[in-house]
Amino acid sequence: QVQLVESGGNLVKTGGSVRLSCATSGFTFSDYYMSWIRQAPGKGLEWISYISSGGDDIYADSVRGRFTISRDNAKKSVYLQMNSLRAEDTALYYCARESRKSSSFDSWGQGTLVTVSP
Amino acid sequence: KFMLTQPHSVSASPGKTVTISCTRNSGTIGTNYVHWYQQRPGSSPTTLIYNDDQRPSGVPDRFSGSIDSSSNSASLSISGLKTEDEADYYCQSYDSSSRWVFGGGTKLTVL
Fold it and tell me: Does the beta-carbon distance from A110 to B100 stay under 8 Å?
């Protein structure tokens, strides 16, 4: 079955960097667009980045210029390089697969927690 | 850019029907599909409704989605409420300017 497993979350200091990974299985990864979506503690969902199957990327205003999404179709994985981290970046980060039928997200990982401390 | 506004919380008794609204503040609700997710405590979101009113396989028909152009809003209705329906519910839509937008979420309490 479809699986998305995030890793790489950590406690980092303000201004620091972290790289998240999302390993996938159970589907033809190269056929799908992928996104990163985050959820601050006790808050709602916020889409932050997207990558097409061919590598075109899009970012939310809140992270543009600081975060970089990438993918390795051979490794069936998507990544998020997060630089210049701020306290407001503290969140659970999900990778999600975009449905081929719609602009919805039909599969989500379990999330990986990034905590940015002063 | 548009925003989607949901009520912070709703509540109802087991067996009853509850409706959660999702109002778009600019642009027309019917221009872009609306999707709905359920997030139980401690779990990742799962899709309940996609493309306004479509249910993925495995989602009970107690869950239904609709669009109301007159109020520029989408709605998620849950009938025959069960205690297991207690969760957070999020609407989501997309356009080429705002990209993927989520509503703020609604906490459903089944009393």
Answer: no
